[in-house]
Design a protein that fits this description.
Its main location: cytoplasm. The chain is α/β, with parallel strands linked by helices and 233 residues long. The chain folds into two domains: 163 residues, Alpha/beta knot (3-Layer(aba) Sandwich); 56 residues, Trp Operon Repressor, Chain A (Orthogonal Bundle), CATH 1.10.1270.20. Helices cover 28% and strands 18% of the residues. It has six helices and nine strands, in the order βαβββαβαβαβαββα. Strands 2-1-6-5-7 form a five-stranded parallel sheet. It has a two-stranded antiparallel sheet with strand order 3-4. A two-stranded antiparallel sheet has the order 8-9. Strand 8 and strand 9 form a beta hairpin. Helix 3 packs across helix 5. The mean pLDDT is 94. Bound molecules: 6-chloroguanine. 6-chloroguanine binds next to strand 5 and strand 7.
């Protein structure tokens, strides 16, 4: 998979060199390019923003540098997906992460300030698939941290990035429920014992206990995931 990121803070993305993602990059499974939006400006101050038409607080990113940056990164690839992180986007979910993990080329447009001139999204929509995605109902200063979250959630689903793909199957959200609690040695710690069923060797009883824990935890902290008909994915 090829991932391109366009941002005014390319240094934010140095963390993509570490951990599993760094290994996937070095192994050639994922190829990441980070591009400085200011390299696509032509004035002495490398200006990327201006005041909003219609008035209001804050600054809006001008369309020209975005147009040139996207022309450069997309080149002739009409089979790319442009992802625009924005609190006004569709909520990002594990189901969307699975869809994106099957794609060949993802381009992230990280806006700052009050966003990007909307004509950039409208113009790009005529060339490639565009997804405006939100991490949740709160506001970040820009798209960088959100892009990083999407990249991590997607990249770990790309075959070859995670050593043991079976570990992906039992995670929170993969079956529409939250994960069951996990324990390891010692069996007793600071007066707290591991639930005895987990030491019983009875695999059917363990599976039933874990399922009940998933349902109880989901009902308690995320009842909306259960829906009227029980678990939905
Ligand atoms: Cl994707 N971007 C920004 N700026 N803020 C957010 C967000 C995205 N998701 C939640 N808050």
């Amino acid at each position: 998979m090829r991932i391109d990121v366009i941002t005014i803070f390319p240094e934010f993305f140095s963390v993509l060199d570490v951990s599993l993602l760094g290994k996937a990059r070095r192994g050639g499974v994922i190829d990441v390019g980070v591009h400085d939006l200011r390299d696509f400006t032509h004035d002495r101050h490398r200006t990327v923003d201006d005041t909003p038409y219609g008035g209001g607080a804050g600054m809006v990113m001008r369309p020209e540098p975005w147009g040139e940056a996207l022309d450069s990164v997309l080149a002739d690839d009409d089979d790319a997906t442009l992802i625009v992180p924005t609190p006004a986007g569709t909520p990002f979910t594990q189901a969307i992460a699975r869809e994106l993990a099957a794609e060949k080329h993802l381009v992230f447009a990280c806006g700052r300030y009050e966003g990007i001139d909307h004509r950039v999204v409208d113009h790009a929509s005529g060339r490639v698939r565009v997804r405006e995605l939100s991490l949740g109902d709160y506001v970040l200063n820009g798209g960088e941290v959100a892009a990083m979250a999407v990249i991590e959630a997607v990249a770990r689903l790309v075959p070859g990035v995670i050593g043991n793909p079976a570990s992906l199957d039992e995670e929170s959200h993969e079956d529409g429920l939250l994960e069951y609690p996990s324990y390891t040695k010692p069996a007793s710690w600071r007066g707290l014992d591991v639930p005895p069923v987990l030491l019983s060797g009875n695999h059917a009883a363990i599976a039933a206990w874990r399922r009940e824990q998933q349902l109880e935890r989901t009902r308690r902290v995320r009842p909306e995931l259960l829906g009227p008909e029980g678990p939905v994915d």
